[in-house]
Amino acid sequence: MLVSLTPLLAVLDDDPRPGFRRGFTRGALFGAVFYALLLAWLWDLVRFTPLIVPTWALSSLYLGGLVGLAAGAAAWLRARTGRSAALLLPVPWLALEKLLQYGDLRFTWGVLADAIAPFPVLIQTAELWGAPGLSLLIVIVNGLLFTLWRRRLDPAGRRTPALGAVAVAALVPAYGAWRLAGDASDGPDQTVRIAVVQPNVPQEVRDDPRRDDVEKERLFALSRRALAADPDLVVWPETAAPWLRYDPGYVRDLRELCCAGSDRGTPFLVGGLDAEDPGGDVERIYNAAFLMSADGELASIYRKVLLVPMTEQVPYAALLGWLKPDAWSGVFRSGAGFHTLRFDARPPGWQGSVEVGVPICYEIIFPQAIRGFRRAGARLIVTITNDAWFGRTAAPYQHFSQLALRAVENRVPIARAANTGISGFVSASGRTLQESRIFVPGVLVADLGLPGPPTPYARWGDWIVPASAAVLALVLVAGRRTARRRGRGDRRPPV
According to the model, what pLDDT value does residue 433 have? Predict the structure, then answer.
């Protein structure tokens, strides 16, 4: 990853006629190839629909086009300043990754920071500037190494990029080691015990209308194992009980499971579907999470806000109007916003309620989503998902790896319950505490420490985007003034 952008930098720097159009073309090709390889796991979904092939191709071209915008902006700046693309690309790239967070086609899967997510010592600065700040560092390091290689025969010219690369290589791990050491020595004052249930129901079975009894029996059997560990919360995956709210028999059985046979009941967090005006002319369906309290009541609901394009929501359906195909599966509505659910936890040593944010499925890949939960008061993140769609591809592993970034950005622990995996726990410092294997049913239990005050990133968000743009503007303005002074000096008559 530290040299992955050097081919693009070389192409932009060697272009004899730099400009936005030529930079866009080269960047779009580079980005389309990258995303075509990254999203190759989409081909596994052909077993559900042949439409996944054009979806994969169009997604690669669209996301590649956004990379093209960043490269085009760098080429345009190079044409007007004469500066190297190694200096100019970081800020447009940062703007690109910010752009990926918004719109009906939002998709932050595969940002540069994801490449270092498995290495806790390298991602601790995310608490200061989030994943965008880490991506900015990666682009800067690519530029420094590219410049160092270009100036390899110039001892004086290679001194500055070499010092810059050494500084980043030393400071980032040093900060990470310091934060990890502090987290290890200062244990949390409060912990909660969370149990996640992984039923491992293949998607083909989940799509069968007769599957309810099979999944219910497995969920209940695994939950009895989970309750034996005396957890404060038991978590089921996304859409584990699809129409729980409208099935009195299911609610009664779940109430008996959570609240019978012990001194106090155990709250359950259950993925399902919710609706407004069910069966009516203006029916609204939501992908939701239900919290059953220790008293056996469906106490609160979170409705998914960020919907998956195409499968859950037709992008820009309001603009399409009557052109929107009725046969598309994008029938879900977005929830009102990021808010917390609350459950009572009474572990030894303290009493109180815990506010939990529940990102559903791909919401976990968006920094603004977890930051929204944290700002709403969440002291714990529990994400529920169903990765059975993706089979034995790279997708479940790519999906799970992003938990570390979200945890460090907000210094909040994360529990994950997935239908077929990967389920597990990540600490507030980004360390993976436990993880399941895919396609293996089971239960995982962990004691998670609750965090303290919000991090700088949780408070201020992506402040690094305007700050870096301002720094680049100052550098370019200072460079232009220096060039003008030198030009005037050259025109003065000799003394």
Answer: 96
